[in-house]
Amino acid sequence: MEMVTLTTAHETKRHQNANGSSVDVPADITIGNNVTIGDNVVFGSKVVIEDGCLLEDDIVIGDQVKIGHDTELASEVQIGDNSTIGDTVRIAHGTTIGSNTEIRGNNDIKLSVRIGKNTIIGRGTTIASYSKISDRVEIGNDVKIGEYVQIDDLVEVRRTTIIPNYWKIPGHYVVNPHPSRPDTEPPILIKM
């Protein structure tokens, strides 16, 4: 009979940080090479952290989260269960990401952004500080979202759209870049 070892939340392993320090992490997470993990980072089960990541202090990561290579999470970031953070993503201090959310690669998410559950953020997108994106939102590639923007549930933001500071987009809309002057004119909203 083969022996099976069950991993519990209490079993830990020692992780050697890229900077030479070390921290205890749950035994059931996978950590790539050259990863640095700060103090007071809380991990759910079956988390995967790929090569070259930096996780600062006081971060909470839910169950079955995957973090792509060369991604940086600043202090006090929270990531919900079953979410995926792509490669080379920068997430600033105090940002919260809901469960079942996908943040694709090469994104820059600024200070204290709130992203809801079941949401997709396309590649190359920038979300400025204090913006709030609700549940079930889909944001295309290369979108620029200004500060203090609020996007309600069930919104689709098409690729290359620029949303100015302080905009509020109600639920059930498609947001398109301005057809002739996307860099200088506000986007076009179409009711779903």
Helix content: under 10%
Total count of strands: 28
Report on the biggest sheet: 10 strands, mixed
Q: Provide the CATH top-level class of the largest domain.
A: Mainly Beta
- What shape does the CA trace take? elongated
Detail the poorly predicted runs. Answer: 1-8
Query: Do you know the CATH architecture of the largest domain?
Result: 3 Solenoid
Strand content: 25-35%
Kindly report the name of the CATH homologous superfamily of the largest domain. Answer: Hexapeptide repeat proteins
Number of domains as seen in the coordinates: 2
Average pLDDT score: 93
Structural class of the secondary structure composition?
A: mainly beta
Helix run count: 0
Describe what you observe in this structure.
The protein is mainly β. The protein folds into 2 domains: 13-100, UDP N-Acetylglucosamine Acyltransferase, domain 1, CATH 2.160.10.10; 110-192, 3 Solenoid (UDP N-Acetylglucosamine Acyltransferase, domain 1), CATH 2.160.10.10. It has strands at residues 12-16, 22-26, 30-31, 36-37, 42-43, 48-49, 54-55, 60-61, 66-67, 72-73, 78-79, 84-85, 90-91, 96-97, 102-103, 108-109, 114-115, 120-121, 126-127, 132-133, 138-139, 144-145, 150-151, 156-157, 162-163, 168-169, 173-176, 188-191. A hairpin with a 5-residue loop joins strand 1 (12-16) and strand 2. The protein is elongated, with a radius of gyration of 18 Å.
Supply database-style keywords.
192 residues, mainly beta, UDP N-Acetylglucosamine Acyltransferase, domain 1, ten-stranded mixed β-sheet, eight-stranded parallel β-sheet, 28 strands, 34% strand, disordered N terminus
